[in-house]
Write a structure and sequence with these properties.
The protein has 112 residues and is mainly beta. The protein is built from one helix and eight strands; from the N terminus they run αββββββββ. The protein has one domain: Immunoglobulin-like, CATH 2.60.40.1090. Strand 3 and strand 4 form a beta hairpin. It starts with 7 loop residues before the first helix and ends with a strand. The model has no long low-confidence stretch (mean pLDDT 92).
Length: 112
């Protein structure tokens, strides 16, 4: 998922991506997202090479009210086809950090 280049203190940002899962028809599965560099799903952050941070989080819904965590995650039953699970990202309004490239890597775990 990519966020645009902008001053987050002015607007914050939202974006969306998706996780594709394909399992045999009728297979129940659960998708969990890790906490990234922070190790905390409630307080994820993007970090620059200079160790500056931008807070963000990943959600199961477009209202950004349910954090996608590594405990409950999202459960589905497969239909034998590609299942696309939307992931909603949001950077809240915060102080604008120095210019740079900010990244995070989030582990996706699928249990079935």
């Amino acid at each position: 998922m990519y966020f645009l280049t902008t001053a987050v203190s002015i607007a914050g940002q939202q974006n969306a991506g998706a996780i594709r899962v394909k399992c045999n028809n009728g297979t129940s599965y659960n998708v969990l997202l890790g906490g990234g560099q922070s190790g905390n799903t409630a307080a994820r952050y993007l970090q620059s090479a200079a160790n500056q941070r931008v807070n963000y989080n990943l959600y199961t819904n477009s209202a950004h009210s349910v954090i996608w965590d590594n405990l409950n995650g999202v459960s589905q039953t497969a239909n034998g086809q590609d299942n696309w699970l939307p992931v909603y990202g949001m950077i809240p309004v915060q102080s604008t950090p120095p210019v740079g490239s900010y990244t995070d890597t989030v582990q996706v775990t699928i249990n079935w």
